[in-house]
Design a protein that fits this description.
Structural class: alpha/beta
Order of helices and strands: EHHEEEEEEHEEEEEHHEHHEHEHEHEH
Largest sheet: 8 strands, mixed
Length: about 425
């Protein structure tokens, strides 16, 4: 049974009324502004599901709007338009435990990533370089995160149905002690570049009074803002659910460098082993034991986490991989569509399959709304081989997509499960 699908034949009663009286468009938007969007109804045919209708005003001069509904391809999500109005709409069925972000893309090129030609793919890359997706002006739920120095904040619109997991740990709580964050510029001779890193030390941290566990987190700026990991650490620690830990947030030196550094890059593994961790150990009171070292990331960052466990099991005894890009293979070109790629798929899974079981614990998760063959299938293959080899593995498939709206809540669960308080 699918957890999310487009409903081609459903019209919300408010939209049906507007179609009968297009002159009521102004009153329609006034009602939406009061009662918020998207429009949500219980699904009488599918217990445990809801019908969700996104609405968005067609911008002046635009021809169509694509809604990013958390899954699928652009071809699946071109919104319909109520005749005689600028009201665009699209209806879906979601399972009631969904949590996803959504946004709107006026005049986005309509294409399928799986079958796109190089010209179609170049057109969509050019579109997003100039046209960021738009939030819902009437959203029920949202999250604001910083986009970077000199850039406006990101405003994300969220859909969270009745059974969506609680995410209160992601919000700043005024009644809990907060850790300290120090920013550094870190120059790497191996990588030939310089990047920002941030080091989080927990409340009450004393460098000479213990060997703290270490959490290495990729996509450092995004992890501090879109997730944000430091709030999870503060709140989980205040609730007595994790050990005090030192976290290092490793940023990407350029806007495109993550595409080269994070996917199974040997030089990047050496950078972590011979430059970053020795520096951290020299400057902070952290443990040197692999059992006390954790690494986490999302997408390519999840792949990098599993790569470091494979390459450096003597340094990292714990992996928290969220939506790892296990489909990846050497030679992948981010500038080309899938149909134009010729790579050995699932390269890292093959390495794990051929190797003896590593002394590493794993948390691996993949959202149920992810691409079935590109994301879900490789993660299930990895799960099967790890279980066959007897790995210490916690594997889950929460209801969401490739999305920080999902990851922030599941990372809180992962930290609590993998880094419990000392006995």
């Amino acid at each position: 049974m699918t957890v999310a699908e487009r409903l081609a034949d459903h019209s919300h009663p408010r939209l049906a009324a507007l179609a009968a009286d297009p002159g009521g468009e102004a009153a329609f938007w006034e009602e939406i502004a009061r009662e918020r969007a998207p429009l949500i109804e219980a699904d009488p045919e599918w217990p445990g599901f809801s019908r969700v209708t996104y609405v968005f005003p067609l911008p002046e001069g635009a021809r169509h709007v694509v809604v990013n509904a958390g899954f699928g391809q652009a071809t699946d999500h071109v919104m319909e338009r109520v005749p005689g109005t600028n009201v665009c709409h699209a209806s879906y069925r979601y399972r009631n435990d969904v949590r996803t972000s959504y946004s709107f893309a006026p005049d986005m090129p309509v294409f399928s990533y799986d079958t796109a030609s190089p010209e179609e793919y170049a057109a969509v890359l050019a579109y997003f370089a100039e046209h960021p997706s738009l939030p819902d002006p009437h959203h029920r739920d949202h999250f604001v995160s910083r986009a970077g120095e000199g850039k406006p904040d990101n405003l994300g619109s969220f859909l969270a149905l009745a059974d969506a997991p609680d995410e209160s740990l992601v919000h700043k709580r005024p009644d809990v002690p907060r850790g300290n964050i120090e920013r550094h510029l870190f120059k790497s001779a191996l990588m030939g570049n310089e990047r920002r890193i941030w080091v989080y030390t927990p409340p009450g941290y004393q460098a000479g009074e213990g060997a703290y566990p270490v959490l290495v987190t990729f996509d450092g700026g995004a992890a501090l803002t879109s997730i944000p990991v430091q709030r999870l650490l503060d709140n989980l620690l205040a609730d007595g659910r994790i050990r005090p830990a030192v976290a290092v947030f490793v940023d990407n030196p350029t806007d495109t460098s993550r595409n080269d550094e994070l996917p199974c890059n040997e030089a990047f593994a050496q950078f972590i082993e011979t430059e970053l961790l020795p520096w951290l150990r020299a400057n902070y009171g952290v443990s040197h034991a692999a059992a006390d070292h954790y690494v986490t990331g999302v997408s390519y960052g999840g792949l990098a986490s599993m790569w470091l466990a494979y390459r450096l099991p003597h340094m990292f005894g714990n992996v928290l991989a969220q939506a790892p890009s296990l489909w990846w293979g050497p030679g992948w070109d981010v500038g080309k569509p899938a149909a134009a790629q010729t790579i050995p798929d699932e390269w890292l899974i093959d390495r794990y399959e051929a190797a003896d079981r590593l002394p590493v614990r794993f948390w691996i998760e993949m959202g149920l709304m992810e691409h079935p063959s590109r994301m879900l299938s490789p993660s299930r293959r990895m799960r099967a081989l790890m279980e066959a080899k007897g790995y210490d593995l916690i594997y889950s498939e929460p209801n969401g997509g490739h999305d920080s709206a999902l990851w922030r809540g599941t990372l809180a669960k992962a930290l609590a499960a993998m880094m419990p308080p000392a006995a």
